[in-house]
Design brief:
By secondary structure, this protein is mainly α. The chain has 9 helices and no strands. The chain has a single domain, classed as Actin-related protein 2/3 complex subunit 5 (Serine Threonine Protein Phosphatase 5, Tetratricopeptide repeat), CATH 1.25.40.190. Helix 3 packs antiparallel against helix 4 and helix 3 runs parallel beside helix 5. Pfam families: P16-Arc.
Length: 168
């Protein structure tokens, strides 16, 4: 083993961020406008939305609860390095999942049809986030919602989610 190979053997080379050495790299802050609200306000707004949506679910109004969850401009996005933002994102995801789990599969197309196109895109973002993080816990529910959302909103909804840099 050569000296250079021996020196590099202790470095986890697959975890090295090579982009840090690129002077032309693009930062997330250059791709989209950050949320103008301070992180603590993002968290408190998400907690208030959580209380409102849970109240709607207790009354059995799943359509209003879903609409409240995905209302444009009120969902948390931003840097994952800020603890309040991470907590708000997790709270919002759990809230969406509770709404999705509260509905019957036969009601999904009607619920999705009531959403505006921007709200459908937001719902799709949360579905992909749920697929990314939850594994098997709500897989059937999330896939069922994804199927019905694509039937109503079309493939363009998926394209808009993939091209939008604001992650939920």
């Amino acid at each position: 083993m050569s000296a250079s190979t021996a020196a590099l053997s202790g470095i986890p080379f697959r975890k090295v961020d090579i982009d840090q050495y690129d002077e032309d790299r693009v930062l997330p802050s250059e791709l989209y406008q950050p949320d103008p609200r301070p992180p603590q306000q993002v968290l408190s707004d998400t907690q208030a939305k959580d209380r409102a949506v849970r109240g709607l679910l207790q009354r059995g109004d799943v359509a209003a609860a879903l609409k409240e969850c995905v209302r444009e401009g009120e969902w948390p996005y931003g840097e994952d390095s800020v603890p309040e933002i991470v907590q708000a994102k997790q709270l919002a995801l759990n809230l969406i999942l509770s709404v999705l789990n509260s509905s019957r599969s036969t009601d999904i197309p009607a619920l999705v049809a009531t959403l505006e196109p921007a709200e459908q895109v937001t719902l799709m973002k949360y579905l992909y986030k749920a697929m990314e993080n939850l594994g098997d816990s709500s897989g059937n529910v999330v896939l069922g919602w994804h199927e019905k959302l694509v039937e109503v909103a079309g493939i363009g909804c998926i394209v808009r989610v993939m091209t939008d840099r604001r992650r939920v």
